[in-house]
Amino acid sequence: VQLQASGGGLVQPGGSLRLSCAASGFTLDRYAMGWFRQAPGKKREGVSCMTSSGVVLYYAETVKGRFTASRDNAKNTVYLQMNSLKSEDTAIYYCNTRPNVILPWGQGTQVTVSS
């Protein structure tokens, strides 16, 4: 079982990125999924929560209005569109099941917002 996040990179403030998280060895379509992030020196935090059918139930206040979560169950993949990025969005981003994390954490994908 593996969660492989990708799409991160270095972006200037105000820029956009689209993250993907693909699962292998596990079918995601029955599970609510979430995005998480961990900034340097901070605890991992939840960014979003989305039902198995793609209804987003929750965005962290710090990303509301700027980030959009989605999923393609046929591709066993979830996505996070991030717009209007800020320096405080700099973190490693991960996906996992919600509300309970039941899968091994993948390596995540690094997002760095800097001019």
Helix content: under 10%
User: Could you state the order of secondary-structure elements as H and E?
Assistant: EEEEEEEEEE
Q: How much β-strand is present in the residues?
A: over 45%
Gross geometry: globular
Gyration radius (Cα, Å) is 13 Å
Q: Structural class, please? A: mainly beta
How far apart are the first and last residues' alpha carbons, in Å? 37 Å
Number of strands: 10
How is the largest sheet built, in terms of strand order? 2-10-9-4-5-6
Describe the sheet with the most strands.
6 strands, mixed
Mean pLDDT: 97
| Low-pLDDT residue intervals, each spanning 5 or more residues | none
Query: Please, how many helices?
Result: 0
Can you walk me through this structure?
Helix content is 0%, strand content 50%. By secondary structure, the protein is mainly beta. The strands form two sheets. A six-stranded mixed β-sheet has the order 2-10-9-4-5-6, with no helix packed on it. Strands 1-3-8-7 form a four-stranded antiparallel β-sheet, with no helix packed on it. Strand 7 (67-72) and strand 8 form a beta hairpin.
In short:
With 115 residues, this protein is mainly β.
Ordered list of secondary-structure elements with their pairings:
Blueprint: E1 2-6, E2 9-11, E3 17-24, E4 32-38, E5 45-50, E6 56-59, E7 67-72, E8 77-82, E9 91-98, E10 109-113
